[in-house]
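Give me structure tokens for this 189-residue protein.
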Amino acid sequence: GYHRRLFEDASKYNAREQVSGLLLLCSSHILHVVESCSSTIHLIIRDLASLQDQGPSALLQEIKVLVVAHNIPARLFADWYVTVATSPVTCPQDSAQSQPTEETVAECLALLLRVAACMPKPAEDDSEDATDSPHALTPELLIPAETISRLCKAEECASPGDFLRMYLSPLQPALDSETVWPVPSHLSA
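Here you go.
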């Protein structure tokens, strides 16, 4: 219900820009890929930040923003899909823990590219609303549950609130207080 409302609000927010992507529902995790304009993505991240501000009683916990990219030449998903992970996928504990976060994110993105390739194209999808009929993914396309859990706990990945603070803060380069800049002779009096 929460994600359906979020999707509907995002679609209404900027009606000129379609919202597409994937909502992957696992037993204990949710992975949400959103493709839209920057203002719509900002709206969704603000909503997730307000949800996370509710503390331990919030519907979703350990929310992380993994990647925000601009000027993407083509979308991965033709529509907005809800996909159910029917069986938990596991990976060897030591391989998941020893891998740097950047590599783990890249691995997840590679799997998402494979998922996108398996999603029905508009002509193949006979339902009027792809969000009404969840698609099931085969286990080899699923991101291991341990990987998602590790990314949710990774300090390198920003929470929605942290992402917004970085996004909204102006760049302020630090000035070296020891540096003395010479005043041009025509300006000194």
